[in-house]
Amino acid sequence: MIVKKLRAEKNWSQEQVARFSGLSIRTIQRVESGQSASLETLKSLASVFEVEISTLTEEINVIDKKSEHWKTQPWWFRLWALGVDSRQVQVGLKYLLLAVAIGLTMASYFEPIFTKFSLITMYLLFIQTTCIQYGDKNKSWGYES
Questions:
Q1: How many angstroms separate the first and last alpha carbons of the chain?
Q2: CA atoms of 20 and 45, how far apart (whole Å)
Q3: What's the CA gap between 142 and 145, in Å, rounded?
Q4: What are residue 86's DSSP bridge partners?
Q5: CA within 13 Å, CB half, 117
Q6: Alpha-carbon distance 3 to 16, whole Å?
Q7: 92 compared with 71, residue with greater pLDDT
Q8: With 50 as the cut, is the pLDDT of residue 89 above it?
Q9: d(C-alpha 41, C-alpha 64), whole Å
């Protein structure tokens, strides 16, 4: 579960998390091993790590590049996703490209040189969106739906 990752990021021991959250060490161990947690436990942990409860319960979907499924994906998809191996990051990149495209389009009204950069960014946005759709359709993100 993500609790172990959050704890490692803060360089805390299980004992420290237990003390900060008011939970037992055994509860922390149970949650970190992926067993279910009560709503009260999740609230306590979310408060300690200063995150939303949904963050503690969401799965981290990543591409398993070593899997046979990944190897069967087309070269253009694997090339585009290189180094950006989670759907969440891919969508974040899409929104970043969208913001840049809007900014460049607005700037092109004042300075025509930005027009070509705006068009290039829109093309990259199209490719990014196509790759995300392809990944969703072919379950390329490491989850089964």
A1: 19
A2: 9
A3: 10
A4: 62
A5: 16
A6: 13
A7: 92
A8: yes
A9: 31
- Give phi and psi for 13, each to the nearest 5: -85, 165
**Mean pLDDT along residues 99-120:** 95
pLDDT, tens digit (0-9, with 9 covering 90-100), for 33-63: 878 788 888 889 889 989 888 787 765 444 4
Angle, to 10 degrees, between the axis of helix 39-49 and the axis of helix 25-32? 90
Q: What values do phi and psi take at 85, rounded to 5? A: -105, 20
Contact 3, 45 (CB under 8 A): yes
Token reading at 42: 């999740």
Both tokens of 10, joined, read 């803060």
Helix, strand, coil percent values for the chain (each to nearest 5) = 65, 0, 30
Question: What is the Cα–Cα distance from 36 to 2, expressed in whole angstroms?
Answer: 13
